[in-house]
User: Fold this.
Amino acid sequence: MKSHDGMTLIVKTVTRLSVWLIILYGLYIILHGHLTPGGGFGGGVVIALAFLNVLLAFGHKFTGEWLKIPLLEKLESGSTLLFMLVGLLGIFYAGSFLANYIIKGSLYHLFSAGTIPLLNIIIGVKVAMSLFLVVWVMAAFKIEEEEEQ
Assistant:
């Protein structure tokens, strides 16, 4: 077994159980970012770390097949377009870029912040995909270097 094929059975089992909890916690941070500390960036980092956990535990090949890297690349690119779209809709509906054009709800409730939760979700996707893809590419270069030697 090569070094990039993953770790021991114990590490893989713990990762298989914990990765979903880590992703769930990242989603919680993203969705409650307008009510509590956190938001799109913090939640995106947590989700990227969950993907990194899978990469470290199972190796490069398995992770590429499980996460479908081309889909992650499209999500990362599409999130930029969605952010711009939300911002431009603010110009058309409220008069300025990123202005709130969604009706606000009651204070301290999940649907109380207009476009902020939507932007947190978009930023969370952008950060999670960007950070993980950077690590993914660096790992691919490292694997190529090892294979050349």
Residues 10 and 47 are 22 Å apart (CA to CA).
